[in-house]
Amino acid sequence: MTDSPAPIPSLEGTVLDFTPVPMERQRGGGWSVEMQRRFITALAAMGSVGAACKACGMGRVSAYRLRTREGAESFATAWDRAIEDGRLRQFDYAMERALNGVTTVRVLRGGSITVQSGPDMKLINSALRDVPMPPEFAR
């Protein structure tokens, strides 16, 4: 049984649609058209270049090199949009966890168990630190 990668959703007609970077030669395990689309999809889901590269099995340095190649303008635009989408998605996820809380179960060596649940105020403060304050609330 082989582990084939999951099919990537089509980016056609979305804001992440792009013209793939033209490659002079095709390498096995390189930045094929499918790999470029897979990377943009992962980037939109994760909001992190490092995490998206790891998910695709590619290196960060080669991703940044691909972004700066001649003919990569459309790819770079999709990259920027994907980063923004991914960061917003991660912010929403963090706020949901922060406000609704998480349950933490701790088992100690003596066999005692503690269960804690509730909002994570550190996470809330961290998430809100980067949100611009509306002008009517500025001092």
Any overview of this molecule?
This protein is mainly alpha-helical and about 140 residues long. The protein has one domain. It contains five helices and two strands; from the N terminus they run ααααββα. The protein has helices spanning about 35-45, 50-55, 60-65, 75-100, 120-130; strands at about 100-105, 115-120. A hairpin with a 5-residue loop joins strand 1 (about 100-105) and strand 2. The longest helix is centred in the middle third of the chain and has 28 residues, at about 75-100.
Question: Which features would summarize this protein structure in a list?
Answer:
single chain; 139 residues; mainly alpha; two-stranded antiparallel ribbon; 5 helices; 2 strands; 48% helix; extended
In short:
The protein has 139 residues and is mainly α. The protein is 48% helix and 9% strand. The protein has helices spanning 33-46, 49-56, 60-67, 73-100, 121-129, and strands spanning 102-107, 113-118.
